[in-house]
Design brief:
The chain is an alpha/beta fold. Helices cover 33% and strands 21% of the residues. The strands form 5 sheets. Strands 9-7-5-2-10-1-11-15-19-20 form a 10-stranded mixed β-sheet, sandwiched between helices. Strands 14, 16, 17 and 18 form a 4-stranded mixed β-sheet that branches. The structure holds guanosine-5'-diphosphate, 6-O-phosphoryl inosine monophosphate and magnesium ion. Guanosine-5'-diphosphate binds next to helix 1 and strand 3.
């Protein structure tokens, strides 16, 4: 069984939580794109894990893999491994593997990301983790790969070859080029390479073999559909392909192997960073959702902008991913509102459209058209089944399901693993 999970909105839908929960039934959990711009939270009992790179299936028995389509900051990976080890979770090479072809995020990528963002008149609001610049180098074939990192001689030669162009790029943005060749940095990367060498593997082979052997593989997406570098709200997007098909291309698994595509969707919408968000709420309701939902970025701590559920964007996400089912998260956050609103279409230059326009500028001009549903008062965080939800909350879920035309199979009413039930 091969299942792909992606975020159906702008990221932070609760992918980490659902992956942790589902990993019980999966032998392998694999990240296929993005890097430590992701922040995935797993909460079990009183333990909360906020991870950027290690797949969210690390707690149970699954093997966790980082695929070649990701961009990996080895320092962040080492920190995460140390943090888990302090809590008694030691990730051995039997548990964790990183593909030899994975692109390495170097300090100059992080530097360039920060410098570039500071020079932009219209900012993207990146996480400043060097993601875009690492992907530029991957496509330009100027990257340092995991296989180079773990081989001191290859790493030295590769950096020698790349240094002049990296120094020039940093100089052009008025930064300090010495970051490229500083000896302490080189020593640090050599040390990281030594440490991570036992983890190097062929992820594509492992995933295909697991599927062939009848095992279950779960591909964990990062970011969200509308941050996709091709189909998202350019230029306010990340630098990787975040939609489900990307799992096949990035892992080297044929599309004929996919059994399920699960979309994770919040009961409202959030966005961190710049870019259009047609249903954005800048009023007291928006603040209430933000506070109750603790909508602050896992990676940067920034406030997440909040808005009502946006059906046109979901329709597009359903097309782009081919979802076979959906998990609806954070339903509990909407408790206490007199009414909940759902954007069913947009008004765009005096036309009504029920699908997002392809251009970002046009999407920015869209005004939401709402249908209002009755809200509910009671706290949902202890609810254990669909039938125990207040009638208005049930109706909200059924309404969304009907409008989206894709079954909602999981409902989440709190951050904890146990605060989830099947519909
Ligand atoms: P991800 O990037 O998609 O993995 O999502 P994040 O972990 O960045 O953000 C989701 C946040 O909401 C995390 O703090 C989760 O612990 C939390 N969360 C997940 N599901 C629920 C839910 O159903 N209700 C509430 N209140 N919080 C949730
Ligand atoms: P998870 O996996 C939400 C956003 C950034 C910025 C844009 C580009 O936790 O859902 P980047 O650093 O990738 O070049 O920034 O993308 N962004 C995310 N927003 N969740 C994420 O990941 C994100 N990863 C990147 O805020 O707007
Ligand atoms: Mg997140």
């Amino acid at each position: 069984m091969f299942t792909i999970i992606t975020g159906a909105q702008f990221g932070d839908e609760g992918k980490g939580k659902i992956v942790d929960l589902m990993s019980e039934d999966y032998d392998v959990v694999v990240r296929f794109q993005g890097g430590d711009n992701a922040g995935h939270t797993v909460k079990v009992g009183t333990d909360v894990y906020k991870l950027h790179l290690i797949p969210s299936g690390f707690l149970l028995d699954s093997r966790v893999l980082i695929g070649p389509g990701t961009v990996l900051n080895p320092e962040v990976l080492a920190q995460e491994m140390d943090m888990l080890a302090q809590g008694g979770i030691v990730l051995t090479p039997e548990k964790l593997g990183v593909d030899a072809k994975t692109s390495i995020i170097m300090p100059y990528h992080v530097e360039l990301d920060g410098l570039r963002e500071s020079k932009r008149t219209e900012k993207i609001g990146t996480t400043k983790r060097g993601i875009g610049f690492a992907y530029i180098d991957k496509v330009a074939r100027d990257e340092v790969r995991m296989a180079d990192l773990v081989d001191p001689e290859r790493l030295r030669l590769r950096l020698l070859e790349l240094a002049p162009s990296k120094e020039a790029a940093i100089k052009e943005l008025e930064g300090d080029p010495s970051i490229v060749t500083r000896k302490d940095l080189m020593d640090k990367y050599l040390e990281l390479g030594r440490r991570l060498a036992p983890y190097v593997t062929d992820v594509s082979y492992e995933v295909n073999k697991a599927i062939e052997d009848g095992k279950n593989v779960l591909a964990e997406g990062a970011q969200g559909t509308h941050l996709d570098v091709i189909h998202g709200t350019q230029k306010f997007v990340t630098s990787s392909s975040t939609v489900a098909g990307s799992a096949c291309a990035n892992l080297g698994v044929g599309p004929t192997k996919v059994d399920e595509v699960l979309g994770i969707v919040k009961a409202y919408i959030t966005r961190v960073g710049e870019g259009p968000l047609p249903t954005e709420l800048t009023d007291e309701t928006g603040r209430q959702i933000q506070q109750v939902g603790k909508e602050f970025g896992t990676t940067t701590g920034r406030e997440r902008r909040c808005g009502w559920f946006d059906l046109p964007l979901l329709r597009k996400a359903i097309y782009l991913n081919g979802y076979t089912s959906l998990a609806l998260t954070k339903l509990d956050v909407l408790s206490g509102l007199d009414e909940v609103r759902v954007c069913v279409s947009y008004e765009l230059d005096s036309l009504i459209v029920d699908y997002p326009p392809e251009g970002t500028a046009e999407l920015s001009r869209c005004r939401p058209v709402y249908e209002n549903l009755p809200g509910w008062e009671s706290d949902l965080t202890g609810v254990k089944s669909f039938g125990d939800l207040p009638e208005a909350a049930q109706n909200y879920v059924l309404y969304l399901e009907r409008k989206m035309g894709v079954p909602i199979t999981y409902i989440s009413v709190g951050p904890g693993r146990e605060q989830t039930f099947r519909k």
